[in-house]
Amino acid sequence: MTQPRTLLTLLGIAGSAGLLLGALAFQHIGGLPPCKLCYWQRYGHVAAVILGLLALLVPQRILLWLAALGAGSSGAVGIYHTGVERGWWEGPSTCTSGPVAGKSVDALLNDIMAAPMVRCDDIAWELASLSMASWNVLASTVVALCFVAAANRLRG
After folding, report:
1. Residue 146 CB: number of other CB atoms within 10 A?
2. Bigger pLDDT: 72 or 120?
3. Which of 62, 65, 96, 107 gets the highest tally of CB atoms within 10 A of its CB?
4. Is the predicted pLDDT of residue 80 greater than 60, yes or no?
5. pTM summary value
């Protein structure tokens, strides 16, 4: 029978991998290219998968805590991204629109030409009034909690 720690670790790995695969499916199958903040959200899950797999081979609590931190960092970026999408705060200047008052036509054209193709402050998809970034926050929290629970079951 599988130990609860192993099962929780596998759930965490599967959760992070599933979120990554989902993001790639939205990108490559759904035709929704990611913005800069979308990419940032992926990095934590990549780390969580790698650290989770390593924790299966080398059962050390620190690896599980780091995997939880990876998934949690994705959720934290998701909170930031949600706030940018909802206009609660400004996003990175390289990925959101700014005020145009007082700019010349040439300056505006230069801004448009230098802007990324996908803006961070646009909501490309949502379900139940939650954007992908918001759903990532919820899912990343569950994944992080799986790793935390696994770490708490491993003594030493």
Report:
1. 26
2. 72
3. 96
4. yes
5. 0.81
Q: Three-state DSSP class for 7?
A: helix
Alpha-carbon span 156 to 154, nearest angstrom: 7
User: Alpha-carbon distance 155 to 119, whole Å?
Assistant: 45
Q: Tokens representing 17?
A: 């991998």
- Considering only residues 124 and 152, tell me which one the structure prediction assigns the higher pLDDT: 152
- Of all residues in the chain, what percent carry a pLDDT higher than 70? 85
Residues 6+ apart with CB under 8 A from 91: 37, 80, 81, 84, 120, 121
User: Both tokens of residue 102?
Assistant: 């007082």
Q: How many CB atoms lie within 10 A of CB 82?
A: 20
Amino acid 152 reads N
The tokens describing 70, both together, are 């990876």
pLDDT tens figures, 34-51: 999 999 999 999 999 999
The DSSP symbol for 131 reads E
Q: What is the Cα–Cα distance from 18 to 45, expressed in whole angstroms?
A: 9
From 79, 87, 81, 80, select the one nearest 138 (Cα to Cα): 79
